[in-house]
Amino acid sequence: MMNSSEACSIAKSLISHSGIIAVHAVMILIAIIGSSMMIGLLSAIATYRVLQINLRMLLCSLSAVITVRSISTLGRSAFFLSLSGQTDCAQVVWLLWRCQSFANIISGPGFVTGYAFFALALERILALVLGNKYEDSTIPIVGAAVTAVVWLEYAYIVGVEWAALIVNDTARVSEGYLPYCTSVSHHGVSVTTRLVIPCAVTYYTIYIMTLIGAFIASSISSKGNLLLGTIIKELCSMGFNCYSIIFPLIMWKREPGLRFSLRKQPVDLHEPPVAAHFDVVTSMWECALPPGSRSTRQTQDKLRRKPRPLSPPSLPSNEGRESSVDVCVPPGRGKRHSAEI
């Protein structure tokens, strides 16, 4: 075990290295940009009611976790830069030990973000099962309950690490695991579910890359190259701060109602019925069958009994003009039907 002078020498050589200073300077810049964007997105989600109330609450929780992570990393990098001017060896070693406990608190939102996406997946599955009855609900019971459960993990981490700081117990560290959730359904996926999926996929991609990078950094450090291992570790941590920029960009791109530049109005997130479209496609497919077949006769009977309008009721009418859409009927079996739009 190294003595305090050796520990101080190694610590000072690391924190004063130009590569470490450059990495933390870039980290601070990314954290400032990401925190600002996340705060803007969080205020937009909370203020503009363009999403279902439970989904809005869970997205606020997710945004808050990412914001806490970004702000915490900003403070950690600023702390490292402030250490570069320290001359007292004992003070440097003691501050670095305390920084380790704070680092465990900072890494906590990484796990909590996984729980938040897991909660979003469960909430979207519930919305898929219950349908419009759930989407029209204005009671945030699900969102409030799930949000409380998501933040319990981080509250536990903070409590453990603060207790370690108070009693100077270096053996107490935070532990966590990576949850994983996937859902496959043959039903239609709603707009809001498609809003969450790319955010979750991007996050887990960054998370897996961060784990791989941390393993590489640990292996390099254990072989004696502590400087290179430290730089790789900090570059891996930069991925979470980059996500604080990527997440708002995805949300603003896929949901225009959350953009500050647009007029905020409540929008209907329910998708139009797709059954009529499938009926049209089925009819066109059956028309391609040979004349006289059973499927062709059934299609003709349906068209004779009850012609189906091809235009959804939500489309605006074209005043002063008419247009027609031809419906396929096998040759020799009658005239072509037309439906006015």
TrEMBL record:
Subcellular location, record wording: Membrane
Biological process according to GO: detection of chemical stimulus involved in sensory perception
Membrane topology, from the record: Multi-pass membrane protein
GO molecular function: olfactory receptor activity
GO (cellular component) term, any one: membrane
Keywords tagged on the record: Membrane, Transmembrane, Transmembrane helix
Homology family: Belongs to the nematode receptor-like protein sra family.
PANTHER family: SERPENTINE RECEPTOR CLASS ALPHA-1-RELATED, SERPENTINE RECEPTOR CLASS ALPHA-10
Stated name of the protein: Uncharacterized protein
Organism: Pristionchus pacificus
Taxonomic lineage: Eukaryota, Metazoa, Ecdysozoa, Nematoda, Chromadorea
